[in-house]
Amino acid sequence: MPPAWAIAASVIVVLAAFIAGQQFASPGAGPETAASTAEAPFAGGGPAGRAPDISNMTPEEAANRLFDRVMRYATEGKADSAAMFAPMAILAYERIGPPDAHARYDMGTISAVIGDVEAAKAQADTALKAQPNHLLALLLAARAADAGKDAAAAARFRARFTAALSAERAKNLREYSDHQQEIDAAARSPGK
After folding, report:
1. CA dist., res. 159 & res. 85, Å (int)
2. What integer pLDDT is reported at residue 59 of this predicted model?
3. Which of 70, 75, 161, 176 is most buried per CB count within 10 Å?
4. Cα gap 74→80, rounded to integer Å
């Protein structure tokens, strides 16, 4: 793992590229050019080292694409790449506006995969204050407790998740559909 200063320097470079891309985006580019430039890095078709052009996306689209990229890198074991794109992803969520439980889950999950357990816990705590039975907030809280080596707290959050599962699923919230696989996996294995 590179030293902390190297990661910080990488994050600054990526953020500078992100801001420069927004400031100097070509207004004359046609929709085909903009779409291919914006989508290729996230679809796996573009070079991994090239910063994504998210200047033509809505904040929601940018946040979703960056979330997917961070999660893909984390799944592939590319911790440095996940850590490099995580601040951009969190910034994209913050640009959407006041975060709801779904955005807090996504930001907390990003924080958890890069090892920022305190940030993940803070997102879960804030979401649970607003919605004490929100399934994603309970999952995030359990994961943060696991990462913080607090088995008792993790067990409490999982018990709350199990108790709230039926009533919460009946609400048919969009975020439950978006993260159905995670909810289903937790429902099948309540102890994990």
Report:
1. 33
2. 86
3. 70
4. 9
This prediction has a pTM of 0.71
Can you read off the two tokens belonging to residue 10?
């990488």
Q: 49 with 131, same domain?
A: no
The last residue of one of the domains, among 97, 129, 162, is: 97
| CB-based contact 136:127 (threshold 8 Å) | yes
* Residue 104 falls inside a structural domain: no
Backbone angles phi, psi at 79, to 5 degrees: -60, -40
Number of domains in the chain: 2
Residue 87 lies in a domain: yes
List the alpha helices (DSSP H) in the chain: 4-23, 31-43, 59-75, 79-96, 101-113, 117-130, 135-147, 151-169, 174-178, 180-188
What does the alpha-carbon distance between residue 162 and residue 59 come to, in Å, rounded to a whole number?
Answer: 33
**How many C-beta atoms lie closer than 10 Å to residue 162's C-beta?**
14
Distance of alpha carbon 46 from alpha carbon 39, whole angstroms: 8
Per-residue pLDDT of the chain (192 residues; tens, 9 = 90+): 555 544 544 545 444 444 444 444 434 444 333 333 333 333 444 445 555 566 788 889 989 999 999 999 999 999 999 999 999 999 999 999 899 999 999 999 999 999 999 999 999 999 999 999 999 999 999 999 999 999 999 999 999 999 999 999 999 999 999 999 999 999 998 666
Q: What is the C-alpha separation between 186 and 184, in angstroms, rounded?
A: 5
Domain presence at residue 140: yes
